[in-house]
Amino acid sequence: MNLSLNSFKQIHSIMNEQDAVLVYSGDFGQDIIKSMLKYAEEKLESSGIDDLVRRKIFNVMVEMLQNISKHQFVDDKSGARSIFILVEKENDFQLITGNPIRQNIISDVKSRIDRVNNMDDEELKIYYKETRLASRISEVGGAGLGFIDIARKSGNKIEFETFSLGSDQYDFFTLKTRINKNN
Amino acid sequence: MTLFCSELKSNRMEFALNLQKIMLNDNYLIAIRDNFENLLIKSVLNITDKKIQSEEIELHVKNRIFSVIVECVQNICKTEKGSDRKKDSVLLLNRINNGYRIVAGSKIDLERKKRLSELLTELSGKSVDKIREHWRFALTDKKTMDVGKQENLALIELFLRSHGNVNYFFSDEENEMSFFMIQIEISNI
Q1: Cα(B135)–Cα(B69) distance, rounded to whole angstroms?
Q2: DSSP at B162
Q3: Which of B57, B67, B132, B187 yields a CA-CA distance of 20 to 30 A from B102?
């Protein structure tokens, strides 16, 4: 078996183990994002998923893909790029993104996610309004609403992990959101 | 590996980093695992189109890539309706030095394995001209009208579209099933 069939087997095996149905790695331009959303929309439509759940998945996916598009750094040392993974488990869908992140902003990102994760629905609603009113557009075009939006729309806690890339500037940041199939 | 306290509660996501590394190493662009029962082909082609449109490839190369993807999705990856709905089929696209590589895989029974194996061995030993002759013959031959004709024609088409750049592999599994992988390379030239 040659090298590419070997890596194919590895990818297939990881996708099987993790129940991943779509994996995309590379540049996250607007055209690619639109195509992936279209794919997800058609896939969910044909799977007979409840309308409300479908809308939730779609909205969270938009938010996560926009998020990754704004923060798609490339770590020159490891070559690491951004990745998007759609997972379908028996009881939920999971949206996972991974991207190189500057080490000096990790603690800020962590505390923003922790803050959102510690809020209930009502607190999130208020926090969203406050943040929107006080927001200034950042240099990458975000208004700081991404994590709040993801938490509100998914109805679940945001999970995250960071991994070393062996770089002195970047780590690999993974973010996961679950959307329950039965609402 | 850095771990924060709040991260300890979450399930491990290291597989995302591993997938990213494998995909980066072999220049994979996209991986889809599905039953391919539904009409996803249009959006699969759409993603491929957006992915390769920036690379200024010739229209005829693009058409060959699309034809190969369509044949793979409709014939190799497609699982029987009514069978268990496990997503056993995978389609991957990757960029290689002189073109693109499409890899498709699906779980098949041993009877299908035998039929495909015989045909693939036969096709692998032929020149492109001979494969074209084989294709013309298969179109009209009544014997090939029965079991698997569509799939046989699809495999011949894959050889023709790639000018014979086809590799395949069977990996036997439990329950008298085998995992069939086929790799088709489309050159830019």
Answers
A1: 19
A2: T
A3: B132
Q: A3–B6: do the CB atoms touch at under 8 Å?
A: no
User: B16 at the A interface (CB within 8 A)?
Assistant: yes
Parse chain B into domains and list their residue ranges.
27-187
What's the pTM? Answer: 0.86
> pLDDT tens-digit profile of B139-180?
877 665 566 777 888 899 999 999 999 999 998 887 888 989
Instruction: Give all domains of chain A, ordered by start, each with its CATH number.
Output: 5-180 (3.30.565.10)
Question: What values do phi and psi take at A23, rounded to 5?
Answer: -130, 125
ipTM score of the complex? Answer: 0.88
Give the chain A residue nearest B43 (alpha carbons).
A39
Residues of B in contact with A160 (CB under 8 A): 6-7, 10, 13
Instruction: List, as one string, the DSSP characters of B33-77.
Output: EE---SS-HHHHHHHHHHHHGGG---HHHHHHHHHHHHHIIIIIS
Where b means 16+ CB within 10 Å and e means fewer, A48-57 reads ebeeebbebb
The tokens for A142 are 């975000």
Q: Hey, what amino acid is at A134?
A: A
Q: Which two tokens stand for residue B110?
A: 């041993």
Q: Give the Å distances, CA to CA, from A6 to A2, A11, A79, A112, B90.
A: 6, 9, 21, 40, 14
State how far the Cα of A75 lies from the Cα of A24, in Å rounded to an integer: 18
Six-digit token pair at B88? 């056993």
The SS3 of residue A70 is helix
C-alpha dihedral sign at B144, B149, B153, B158? negative
DSSP annotation of B79: P
pLDDT value of residue B130: 93
Give the C-alpha distances (Å, rounded to integers) separating A166 from A103, B2, B119: 11, 11, 48
Phi, psi of B142 (to 5 degrees): -70, -30
